[in-house]
Amino acid sequence: MIKYKKTVRGNFGHPSIDVRPVQGKTVSSKEIAMEIEKTVGIPAIRTMSVLNAFVEMAYNHLEDGEPVLLDGLGTLKPGLSLEGETVVAKKINLIASTQMKERLNGFLLLEETAD
């Protein structure tokens, strides 16, 4: 379940509504590795090694200008911007796959209200 907050901002009779998720606890790679160990049986230490190797390989491909496709999740691509006259890569964009979009549409959403 994704909790979210709505914020209404008044702008001289033209209110705008902003919706943002309320961020929960961040899940670490180690926690995911431990979940994989419980569900698949691969030791967490071995899973961490694979996850770390994946991250390094993803860096290498992105640095070479190659998008990284994660089946079922989406495609990672560097986001470029200008700082003065210099082009810099400051972020990574995730372009969600069709499967991810379908899963997102099925997520339960709950508005958090101030009581």
Quick structural gist:
Helices cover 35% and strands 36% of the residues. With 115 residues, it is α+β, with helices and mostly antiparallel strands.
Give descriptors for this structure.
3-stranded mixed β-sheet, 3-stranded antiparallel β-sheet, alpha+beta, about 120 residues, extended
What does this protein look like?
A three-stranded mixed β-sheet has the order 2-1-6, with no helix packed on it. Strands 3-4-5 form a three-stranded antiparallel β-sheet. The protein contains three helices and six strands. The relative contact order is 0.16. Strand 1 (2-9) and strand 2 (16-21) form a beta hairpin. Helix 1 (29-40) crosses helix 2. With 115 residues, the chain is an alpha+beta fold.
| Number of H/I helices | 3
Helix residue percentage: 25-40%
The strand order across the widest sheet is 2-1-6
Largest sheet: 3 strands, mixed
How large is the share of residues in beta strands?
Answer: 35-45%
Distance between the termini: 20 Å
Estimate the global geometry from the Cα principal axes. Answer: extended
Structural class: alpha+beta
Radius of gyration: 19 Å
Which series of helices and strands comes N to C? Answer: EEHHEEEHE
